[in-house]
Description:
Elements: E1 2-6, H1 10-21, E2 25-29, H2 33-40, H3 51-61, E3 64-67, H4 70-76, E4 79-82, H5 98-110, E5 116-119, H6 127-135, E6 138-141, H7 151-156, E7 161-164, H8 168-177, H9 179-183, E8 188-191, H10 193-224, H11 228-236, H12 257-270, H13 276-300, E9 308-312, H14 327-337, E10 341-345, H15 350-356, E11 361-362, H16 366-370, E12 375-378, H17 383-386, H18 390-396, E13 401-404, H19 411-416, E14 420-423
Parallel strand pairs: 1-2, 1-4, 2-3, 4-5, 5-6, 7-8, 9-10, 9-12, 10-11, 12-13, 13-14
Helix pairs in contact: 1-3, 4-5, 10-11, 10-12, 10-13, 12-13, 13-14
This protein binds uridine-5'-diphosphate-xylopyranose.
Amino acid sequence: MRLTVIGTGYLGATHAACMAELGHDVLGVDVDPEKVAALSAGRVPFHEPGLPELIAKHTASGRLRFTTSFAEAGAFGEVHFVCVGTPQRADSGAADLGHVDAAFAALAAHAAPDALVVGKSTVPVGTAERLARTYATEVAWNPEFLREGFAVEDTLRPDRLVFGVESARAETILRAVYAPVLAAGTPLVTADFPTAELVKTAANAFLATKISFINAMAEVCEAAGGDVRTLAEALGHDDRIGPKFLRAGIGFGGGCLPKDIRAFAHRADELGVPLTFLREVDAINMRRRDRVVELARELCGPDVLGARVTVLGAAFKPGSDDIRDSPALAVAARLRLEGADVTVHDPEAMDNARKAFPLLGYALSLEDALRGADLVLHLTEWPQFRAIDPERAAALVARPRIVDGRGVLDADRWAAAGWRLWALGTPAPVGEGH
Length: 434
Ligand code: UDX
C-alpha cells in the first residue's frame, strides 16, 4: 500500500521505517526541511537503537522517502498516519493540538477524497470525532505505545493493536496495513473513537501511577526505616502486581508520561470527572527530585555552595538521548542555582543537555566527570554507571560520597570501597566516606 506518515519525530520516523519494513511504500512528511534532508540521507537526528539501520535499508531500497510537500503527500497516499507532537500548553497543562490540526487541515486540502487519515498522536478524548467533523475526512484512531529505546521492536512486535474506527472500511484498511503484525498473532482491540483515544491516556496514567505508588512507598521506607528495593522485590512476586514499573527512584520524566497525565487530568476536569489522584501522582513524582537535592545537602554539609557535584546521567532514562523533562537535569540545574559547581556526564545525551542547559559543566569521559568531585549523584541508570568500579572511582574523587537516585548500585560493595552511599528509598546512608 502507499502510506504517508506526517511528522518525523520519534514516533513518526519509527512508524515510517517500520511500515516500509512491513512492505509498504512510505512517504514521510515533515515541515522541517533539515529533518527531511537528514532522514533522506539515512541519518536519524536522535538516538534510537535499530532505527538508523532500518531507515538506511529502506531509503536505499526506495520504499521509504521523505518530503516537506503536503501536495506530494496528498497525491501519493492511500492512507495517511498523523504522528505529530501534542506538547503541553504552558498556561493550563492541556495538550496543544496545533500541530494535529495543521496536519489534518493540510491533508483535507490535498488528500484524495477516499483517503483514510489515521491519527496516532496522543490526544485528549473527543479529538478524533471533532477532527472528522471539522475536516470532513474519513478518520481512524490508532494509538501507539512505543517506548523510547525499544521503538522499533514495540512497533513491529507490539503487545496489542488498537483500532478506533467508525466504519467497516476503515477497519479493513487498517487490517491490511498491519497484516503481517496481525498474522504474527498480535491481539487486536477494535473500539469506538473515545475508547481508542482513552486506551493510550489510561495506559500512561496507569504506568505513572505504578511508579509513583512505589515512590510513595519509598517515602514511607525512608521515614520508617525500611528498604524500598526489597519491598518492591517482594511485591513484584505477586502475579497480580508484577515486577515491571516498580522501580523506585528519582521518578519518571520524558516526553510522554509527565505531560500526558497532566493533559488527562485537565481533560477529565473538563468532562466533570476530576481525576484528583493524578495530581498526587504528579506531586509524588516531583517530590523525588526535591529529595535528591535534600540528600545532596545532607551529604555535603549545611549546603552545597561551592561543592563540586558530578551528575551521572542527563537522559530521562537509559538507552535514550532524550532530555525532555529529565529528572537528572532538573536536579543538576537546581544544585547549580544553589551555588554548586555541577558537572554532567551522559553516554548519549550530552549535546542535547548542553543546548538546553548551557550553564552546567560537562565532562566528555566518565573519568573526567568523577575527578575531584565532592559528591556524585547517580541519576540515570545507564549500564556504564552500574559497571563503575567503586574502588577506582574512589581514587578519582575528592570525597567518596554518592546519592543513588535509581537504587541500583550495590550499596555494600560501594561502602566496602570507602564510599558513603545514600540510596533513595532507604532511611540513612551506608559506609563511612570522608
Ligand atoms: C512511555 C510509555 O512506556 C510508552 O508506552 C508510551 O508510548 C510513551 O511513554 P517512554 O517515555 O519511552 O515510554 O519511557 P518509559 O520506559 O515508560 O519510562 C518513563 C519514565 O519512567 C522514565 O523516566 C523511567 O526512568 C521511569 N521509570 C520507569 C521509573 O522511574 N521506574 C520504573 O519502574 C519504570
